[in-house]
Every structure is written in structure tokens, then in C-alpha cells.
Amino acid sequence: MAEDLVLDTAIRDWVLIPLSVVMVLIGVLRYFVSKLMRSFQVPDPKIVKEGQVIVRARNLRAAANFIPPKSFRSRRVYFSNEENGLLFVPKGQAQNAQAQMFSDPNMAMDMMKKNLSMIIPQTLTFAWVNFFFSGFVAAKIPFPLTQRFRSMLQNGIDLSTVDVSYVSSRSWYFLNLFGLRGLFSLILGEENATDDTQRMMQMSGFGFDPSKSLSAEKDGLDIVQHEWALPKFEHRAEAVLKKLVN
Amino acid sequence: MVSKTEETQLNRLENQVDNGGGGAWEYLCLVRKLKARRSEKVLKYGLSILNDPEKRSALGPEEWTLYEQVAIAAMDCQCLDVAKDCIKALQKKFPESKRVGRLNGMLLEAKGSWGEAEKAYSSLLEDNPLDQVIHKRRVAMAKAQGNISGAIESLNKYLEIFMADHEAWRELADIYVSLQMYKQAAFCYEELILSQPTVPLYHLAYADVLYTLGGLENLHTAKKYYASTIDLTGGKNTRALFGICLCTSAIAQVSKGRNKEDKESPELHSLAATALEKDYKQRASDKLGLLTSALRSLKT
Q: How far is A234 from chain B (nearest CA, A)?
């Protein structure tokens, strides 16, 4: 039955606003705590070198037509040589990156710290919301929803006849969780540790796998056909000078 | 490298500050951003800000960056006491800082105590083996001591790790040219062209090196690169225009016996000569006679 429930304004004053305020405050607290706890990560020389190699190889690919063919060929051999080419990674090493990531104690500690700083406040806030703010209708969503969402959005409300648009405070908590990200980037500047959704996406794609990018670069380099652009430039220079002189 | 608009802006600010029009802080910020080397002015205006306690507190946390900038400028102008005071102030505020450690090393360098400076840099590098600036300072030290081969060696080692650093390649190319190791210099310039293909400076330098190396193939390549410089600068680069004329005459001399017609750009040489004459007429008409006689001797 689609009847209109009249919601007490006291709900707005005592539920919605305090919940948002509390979440903002917790976010700010987390930001400062993360700043204090941030450990200086010493960059691994091998990884730095590989990063630089990739940049150089990419430059070579991009501007290959600007250097004479002989130099290009010698550089290509230097990079993709079977024995000691920079981009050549023997198959055995390729699998190591992920295992290395787990076994490296520093990195594991860092990831754990980051995860903890994200999980603990979330869990606590969620439990707090459930404890205090459950069992009543908190808000009405302005658009209609199907019955599927009932279990997710209306968990404290045990009446099955209430329209699904009327949700409990748990859904308000989730809404805030994802929505306050924009607010945090305004208040705290670009780098804030409250980017939970980003972090969750990052966790699934595990980190920087250098060997794959190296072999990708090598393949790209092998494909490149060198077409020396310089002869064209002579014609263009002629044209420029003609215009200049006349 | 500083672009032309930025340079004009910098000069404008400098004039403004010179003539007492204020804006010293903006000038210092711009110098810092562009990494320009105007140490006397920086020293003068930086000190005037730092010695005035009101202005100094108005800067807030930027005060320390200014201390660092003035310290480096003071070392450049050999006012070592000023530098030492600045560094002391910084050290009081940031006792364990690597940046201050680096400034200390630079002070030792400026005083000329190379051994101690080397020791300071090595200890800093132990804590942080991937600090680019400290590596580069060591190269600069070797160069200043006159130990060019040592500088080349350390620079090469640096480039093995940080091979995408085009400033380092540029420095290496300069060193090689000064030692007349032109083949290696050509390699470095190729690297520079690869990383920044639209900068005419590198094309020009590469063409110069190729022309100096000599040999028919190199001369042809040099001519092409002079042409690309002309294209990239819109024909305004006098050196490239001269380069074209010289290359053409050199090629003609080397291939005197063989009848190798330059099918690619027959008019380039005469066009370059005409452009040069026009340029000289505009800017230095009294030297026009010299130019025409030189060009005539090249044509024969």
C-alpha cells in the first residue's frame, strides 16, 4: 500500500544530522591519525630503476622517428636483447612479484596498517548505528524501489507492508559513507585517507607488477617500425624559409 | 628550461623590485619555481625580508623555504657567514632533517673542504641511497675539483639507475663535448631528443656535434637536423641557418669527385643564405658586408 507516512521532524534533528556530523568528525580524526602514523617507505632501488627503464623505453618508442635508424636499432637491441637486455625478464621471475609482496614484511605491515585504519572506524560506527538507531523509519527515499531492497534498507523495521522507500538509519549510514568523500576532499585537500571506496578497489588489483609492464614495453618496442622523419624536415625547412624570405 | 614568457615575467618582476616597487616575495617565489640562478638579487631581497621581523613572521611556514633559498644564494655569492647563519636557524628548527644535512654538505663544498663534504654526502646517502639530488651534488663536486673523468664515472653510474633524468643527460653531453668525446656526446644528445623531441636546442646541438665529427654520412645527417631546427624555430635561429650553409659547402667539398646531386632540397642552401642576409640587414647591417663575402667564399 502506497500510503504516505508522516515522519517526525524530531527524527531529522536527532538522527540524520547527528549521524552525518559524527561521520565527518570520525573522517577528520582518521585523517590526522593516518598522518601521524605514516611511515616513510624507503623506495626499493630495483623498482625505481625499473620505473625509469620503462620511462626511457617509452620515450624511445614515442620519438623513434627523430633519431637516425642506426641509433634506433642499437638502442632497440640494448633494450630487448635476449641475454642482458634491460626489458628482458626470464619467465621464472615473472611470478615472483605477488609472492614478494606478501613476504616483504614492511609492505605487509603497511597494508595491514592501512586496512586497520579503515576497517576499525567503519565497524565501530556501524555497530553504534545499529545499536542506537535501529527499529524505526528514518527517512524516505524520493524514488521508488523494488522489493528486493527491503532486506538491505529496512533491516530494523519488521513490517512487511511498509513501502520500501522508507528506510532505516542503516541506509543513511551507507549513503554518508560513500557520499562524504567529496566533502572530505574539500575540507582536507586532495590527499586524505578517507578514500575508502578507492582503497577497496585498489585492494582487489594487487599492486605494481613490474615484470608485466617490462614485457609489455618490450613487445611494444619490437613492433615499432622506424621511419626516419628527418628527411621530411628538410622540405619543411625549405617551406619555412621560403615564407620567411618572401 | 625557462620558457620565454616566464623569462619576461621574471625580468619584469626583477625590474619592479629593483626600482623599489615591492613584490619581492613574488619575485623570490618565481625564481624558486623556475630554478633560475639569480643569486645576487635573491640574496639582497631575501635578506631584506628575513632581517625584518615583521615581514618574516608574515611569511608563516614559508619562512623556512626562504631560509633555504637565501642560504643557497649566499653560498653562490660566497657570503659564507650569511649562509652559515641561515643553516643554523634551519637546523634549530629541523634538527634531523636530510635537507638541512644537504645544506651543510653544500656549505662544506662552498668552503672548499672537499673531503669533509664527500664524507657528509656519503653518510646521507647511506640513509637514503636513492636521493637524486645528493648524487648530483657529488658529480658537481667532482667537476668543481677538476676531476672530470671522476665526474663522468659518477654521472654514468647515476644514469644507470635514473635513466629518465634528462638534465643529467644534458650535463653528460656538455662534459663530453668539453672533452671532445663527440661520439659519446652524440649518444647523449640522441637521448635528449628522444625524451623531448620538440626542443630545438637539442637538435641544434646534435647537428653541431655531427658536423664536428665529419664524414659524408654525418654531414648529411647534420644538415637534416639543422633543417629540423629551422623548422622548429620558424627560421629564426641564425646558427642553424649558418649550419645549413656550412654543411652544404662541406658536403660539396667531400663529394667533389662524385656527382651526387642533392635531390632532397636543392634550394635549401640558397634560401638559408638569403634568410641570413635579410636577418643581418635588419639587425646588424654594418656586418652585412662580412656576411656576404663569407657566404660567397662558402659557395665556391
A: 5
pLDDT tens digits for range B85-99:
888 888 888 888 888
d(CA B261, CA B227): 18
Select from A164, A147, A167, A176 the least CA-distant residue to A19: A176
With a cut of 0.95, is the ipTM above it?
no
For residues B208 and B223, what is the distance between their CA atoms, to the nearest angstrom?
A: 10
What is the pTM for the complete model shown?
0.70
The distance of A14 to chain B (nearest Cα, Å) reads: 41
Q: Does B163 contact A52 at a Cβ distance shorter than 8 Å?
A: yes
Question: Three cell numbers at B57?
Answer: 613572521
Question: B267 and A49: CB-CB below 8 Å?
Answer: no
Alpha helices in B94-147, H assignment, sequence order: 98-111, 114-127, 132-144
Rounded Cα gap, residues B278 and B238, in angstroms: 11
Cβ atoms of B288 and B281 closer than 8 Å = yes
Helix (H) or strand (E) run with residue A139 in it: strand A139-140
Alpha helices in A81-223 (DSSP H): 91-94, 96-103, 105-132, 150-153, 169-188, 196-204, 210-223
Residues of A in contact with B227 (CB under 8 A): 230, 233-234, 236-238
Residue B264 to residue B232: CA distance in whole angstroms: 19
Interchain proximity B195–A71, CB inside 8 Å: no
pLDDT in tens, B256-286: 756 555 555 567 778 888 888 888 888 888 8
